[in-house]
Design the sequence.
């Protein structure tokens, strides 16, 4: 089996709008209000100008089925007002990025952390999941994401 391709990507500071939800599977609950705001503004019409990102917040823990999830829409410029949603920023920097599917996301996160450390770099901060396709939990191999891990300067 071939190893996954890891890319190093440097991004500027990104402006973002954030929706948060808690529960046993909070991703859909976090995505829904964000997408309901973004669609009428035409923000999803050109995938080259926005990123749909997510992260566990707080992360799942053993013995506790509920966790939190932040869903964010990020862009390199100002976004329209988003009543009921929170403003956020994605810090500038260099990130290690690897592609995965929903079916292998946990394994791929482990691979990415190991790759970063083996490369002589260190992760700094919380990783992000960039959703590249619509989520289809009935077909987890069809849901494609890029995993973004921020790297320390040095």
Sequence:
């Amino acid at each position: 089996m071939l190893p996954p391709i890891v890319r190093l990507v440097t991004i500027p500071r990104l402006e973002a709008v954030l929706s948060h939800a808690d529960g046993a599977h909070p991703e859909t609950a976090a995505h829904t209000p964000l997408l309901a705001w973004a669609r009428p503004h035409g923000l999803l019409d050109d995938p080259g100008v926005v990123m749909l990102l997510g992260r566990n917040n707080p992360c799942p823990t053993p013995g506790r089925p509920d966790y939190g999830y932040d869903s964010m829409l990020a862009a390199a410029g100002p976004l329209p007002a988003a009543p009921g949603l929170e403003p956020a920023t994605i810090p500038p920097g260099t990130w290690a990025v690897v592609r995965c599917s929903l079916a292998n996301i946990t394994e791929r996160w482990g691979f990415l952390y190991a790759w970063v450390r083996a490369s002589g770099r260190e992760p700094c901060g919380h990783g992000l999941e960039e959703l590249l396709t619509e989520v289809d939990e009935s077909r987890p191999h069809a849901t494609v994401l890029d995993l973004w891990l921020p790297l320390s300067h040095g």
The two ends are 32 Å apart (CA to CA). The chain has two helices and eight strands.
